Amino acid sequence: MFAKAKAAGTRPRKPLGPQPMSEEAVQPAVTNRHVARGLGTTVLARLGAVVEIVTQPLYVLMFGLAGFGLYAVLWATINLIENIFDLGMTSAMQRTVPQSATDAEAAAALRTALLFGVGPCLIVAALIAIFAADLAPWLNVAEKDRALVTPAIQIFVWALPLWAFVEIATSALRARMVFGAEIRLRIVWEQVMRVVFAVLFFALGFGLEGLFIAHLCSLAVTAILSVRLLRRHYSFGDLLRGGRGSEVERNTFWAGLSILPSNIITRLFGDAPALILNLMLPGASGAAAAGLFTIARKLSSVVQLVRIAFAYVMAPLAASAERGGREQVADIYAYATRLISAIALPMAAVLAAGSSSLLSLFGAQAHVAQGAVIILLLARAAEAVLGISLPVLQVVAAFRHQLTASLFGVLVAVGAGWLLVDHVDALTGVTLAMSVGLVVMAGIPMLQLAIGEGLHPFDHQFPMVALRGLAITIVAGVLALLVSRLPDAVALPLIIAIAVGAIWLSVRFGLPYADRASLGKTGRRLRLIGPDAPVAEPGDAA
């Protein structure tokens, strides 16, 4: 039974940021409930990815598959360049800010991240805008869009510094364990406003150029609102002072550079395939292939959303738990793996089985991507279960260990691509090679933690969770496959209902009671535990 530890009266408001510990003070234990609370708000914050999936069929309808493919290629390029020239500052703050003793130190870490993360992106954006005409011929597009490529590059490249700022600002909030602050930014302002602007500019006759301008407008609004949120959790007075190479500034800079190679390789797996397909295939075929891969990747990102949400929560919590001993890290690591398995496996199986109906939203030509969708969904499910080890490795082990997984993943992906290139079509081959590399790159950190740190997530509770979850996954997948034979208008809502039901069953009957109780009031509302059952609060003893 869980004892409720609520003090009488109103709770005093905690000071912002991590506080220095005196000799008498005891660092509060990081529990499964901390993971669950952070996860809930982070999932909501990352639902912008789901909004993006819903809006993509509209973009394909308005601008055509080849036009959407050009947009997808340019946005993938922006993402790749940002991950190189932000110098790893988004990841660096996840390590240095939670370990800061004062608000001044936290502000110093943010100042360093902004200087070295946004500054280089501004310089690169200016250079690309100047040489846009020389870069344009590298892109394969439909003939009718050829004249648009140079101005599109000149306009859209300014998304680079804006995106770097938004990424660093929201990472700074997560580093303060403010997991829910991204919700309004990521969903309302970044995604919903983007589609509103896109429809408006399309109605005004801007054509495909309006999509690029809409993207810039949504990022600009998001960046402005990010500043307001930062003011609540960082001291702007301290932010404007300093910059003289203090220890926390040096640590942030070198932490970013240490993580940078791993970040670049991770981003390559997400965005490079669209660029490779565009370069491999001539003209409109290259643009269409990039668009099809982007559609497949976005559909699989529903499963990836689960892993990303856990990764965002686990990095700062594992850093805090490490101060309280490896037992705390081991507990939340095992708990997160059980929960992510119960959610990701049935979700991936149902979406893969119903992929034909899902692709109908994008038009008849999108069914070519069905094989890629199924491959990516299964790979993302495996990555979700294995990949929760990476954020733990980032905060408990030396940074050089992360590079091992990234390098092996790239080598395996390149090798798989070389073997497949003459045996399957370009889209399937590139997707399969990337997926094999993803799974390898996710599995190696788990082995590194087990061998080098004595940490693994498979405690005595995991086998029963896995067996029950697998049984529910198989039944739900078969049911979704049968439903997908119905007309799409009937099949789509049924597939979504099966996915939701399978996840509920997997969590309700697969997870042990303590795991379900850690979900708090959400667990009660969803009937995962009884209405009168006690729930765990942070700091409670089990």
Automatic annotation (TrEMBL):
Major location category of this protein: membrane
Source organism superkingdom = Bacteria
One Pfam match, by short name?
Polysacc_synt
User: Where is region (Disordered) located?
Assistant: 1-27
UniProt membrane topology term? Multi-pass membrane protein
Which keywords does UniProt give here? Answer: Cell membrane, Membrane, Transmembrane, Transmembrane helix
What residue ranges are annotated as transmembrane? Answer: 58-81, 113-133, 153-175, 187-206, 275-296, 302-320, 332-353, 373-396, 403-421, 427-450, 462-483, 489-511
Where is it localised?
A: Cell membrane
Write the protein's name: Polysaccharide biosynthesis protein
Origin species, per record, is Sphingopyxis soli
